[in-house]
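explain this chain.
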Amino acid sequence: MGGEFSNQYLRLRAQRLAESTREFLARGKSVIRCEHCQLAVFACICPWRPELKSRCEFVLVMHRNEVFKPTNTGRLIADVLPQQTHVFCWSRTEPAQELIDLLADANRRCVIVFPADATDAGSTPRTLVREFPDDGKIITFILLDGTWKQSGRMFHLSRWLDAVPCVVLPEALVRGYAVRKSHQERYLSTAEAAGLCLEMAGEQRAANALQDYFQLFNVHYLATRGVYAPEVGELHRQMLGYQND
């Protein structure tokens, strides 16, 4: 994929914009935003965006409203790992055939990233995965990207995901998320969950890059909301280090 769409999230967003019958009005709609990162142009994070590769891959299954939200963090995964991130809109009954084919790929080991203790409430019993065998298959993490309520609904209503096991992420302190907070600590933002997935898969540098990029996003989002230019500091210099790999 080339041209103006440097990752699948941007392609999906453009598609949804073309299909939409009304404009999505985000909070702070008067702000002039960067077309790529959706932050204010004076707080754009694109100059510090790293692009890495990983042996594992991600599938973002996004709620249709989440595609437009400037607070969305799933798109940060597509920024950092553009070649390893697949992005689809969620459908309860008609998922994209490309998504179904990906789930059925014998060369992949697909797992859903969802809190293990939330898998019993009204859904098909799930196999829980705590580690991965070294069998050459592509570890493929499926992330349901929406609000906490939307993600739960997507998980429990997607019958086409019933056969896919859930991964149990290692215990870790949840990094602070300054944009949206859950009332339950076990719920992570999409980018935070992906960072833990990368750690679990032994992809520490990619995990560090994504986690640092997430922190940078928080800083610049708060600058957008506060209408001030963010101060360039050590975190920005760290991001440039990833670009020099």
Observations:
- The CA atoms of residues 63 and 146 lie 5 Å apart.
- Confidence is low (pLDDT under 50) at residues 173-183.
- The beta strands are 57-62, 85-89, 108-113, 128-129, 138-145, 166-167.
- The chain has one domain: 8-243.
